[in-house]
Fold:
Amino acid sequence: MRISKISIQNFRGILLATLTLPDHAVLIGDNNTGKSSVLEAIDLVLGPDRLNRRPPVDEHDFFLGKYLAKPAAKSEPGASSIVDSLAQADVGSPDEVESAPRIVIEVTISDLSEEQQARFGDYIEWLNITSGLLYDVPDPAGVDAAAIVAALRVTFIGQYDQDEDDFGGNTYFSRSLTESDTPQPFTKKDKQKCGFLYLRSLRTGSRALSLEHGSLLDIILRLKEIRPQMWEDTISGLSSFNVANDPELGISGVLETINRSLKKYVPREWGVKPHLKVSTLTRENLRKVITAFIATGDGDHAAPFFRQGTGTINMLVLAMLSQIAEDKQNVIFAMEEAETAIPPYAQKRIVHELRKLSSQSIFTSHSPYVLEEFSLAETVILSRSSTGQLTQASIVLPDSVKHKRYRQEFRTRFCEGLLSRRVLIAEGATEAASFPVVARRLAELNPDKYDSLEALGICTIDAGTETQIADLAGLYRSLGKRTFGACDKQSITSKAAIEAQVEHLFMHDEKGFEGLVLKNTTQAALERFADVLSWPPHLLVKYPNPKTKAIAAIGEYFAWSKGNWGVADFLAQCSEAEIPQWLRESCAKLKALCDPPPVAAEDLPTTAKKLPDDVAALLG
Structure:
């Protein structure tokens, strides 16, 4: 059993999304792209205990926080009003557009077991796994084709009920929404048969080993059909135990004086004899306060499990989820940030174990150690437009980047770019090391004019050679990234090839980056650097007093330390005026491109009223 497709409308930052998932997947993208929202959306549809929360959704779960019907009066639609209209339940007639927005999430499940097919028989459909389309040809024999498999569609609908002045939501068999006058709920029992388990990183650990409803320990006990009949005995034992009853403690004496005062004002029947008990002595209270203790180290002292180290809690939660997976045999496992407080070797172990235990595993991660455990086909790159369209992309390597190289250089060259929104492809290691350093230095010296690349959300990738800039930029551009290039002077042909793949090319007129820096800085900056530099012995032999021949000596030092932060260290100690003008202009341009100043409404040109391309595409 696995999730083949998920469609999302109006959920959190996602206006529209349709994603297809492989057997095992890692969802990656920059922060706030929507990775967690995708997992939360699946949990709304398939999580057995998710709808126990009341209300199941709230204001912040609706796209742009809009959950009320729009007023009947309409104005000339600008770009924002069209987006508002799209955020309604459906795009169609005026009546439909003016209805209250709804959260609609549909999940298509395939590879159903025989038991699942028997249980959901009335709602089973047939899916062509090659095309991703449902088989609707009026020929029953067609479902015997190898590419056609049994599938089940389930839909969650959440909305604001104006009559009740509250939010509501439920899950239904999708077919019943269109083929029946009465939609058929997809119940908690039905969801348990699907076996979706969701580990929300640290948020799950605080109650995993308690007996609260829906905790991991409670789920394990229910799976094993264990119903501990302990509540009456526990409550009886605790009710006979008076806390701080010893007169020497003084508490009982204070309570007695309160009791005497109470008698002055009310009859006995109203209440007398206040005393302390362990808790409110109800089942629900005990479920919350009973928790497991764990001993650590060589001693016998034990502490509550949630007071252990973060990594220990996460591994404990993982062990419990693995127990659930082993018992259920056919589960879909979703996990956020498997790397949180976990060392690299344990991150890899988590991925291997969950892939082995589950019929499908879905991860989100920012760790190269997790990401490299997934093949290209299993890596799903997510990106979200400014209008809320969430899209996916797959990694297609250019001919110049062989798969072996991708695997070998994944941590050092490819991973950071896959996780970023914006990528600067630098010609070589010197440029890749220097650009972030000089941008950070300029931001410290003149924050109104410059920003660090980190603040702009730009990661810098070493292309290795000028011939690789266009290919790597094309790779990241195909994944929805904003791409920029930085290089030495190129031929007309090479420049055109790079410019075709980047949003902006930063090209200087020198043949080398070291030459650019040496020719465009000041003598004072060179001499200051010569004084603080730990010179390698072979250069000290050639230049006993490097400061007297600073340009020549530092030029040779740059050549010797090429790719080893030599130029970057020099730029880090420069003033703004000492940094080459080309670098200053490049950093200022990057800030203007990535973080433009806001435009006042009265300054917007008439053409600004045109619809954005992605919104126009949604409207057809």
In short: The chain has a mean pLDDT of 82. DSSP finds 25 helices and 18 strands in the chain.
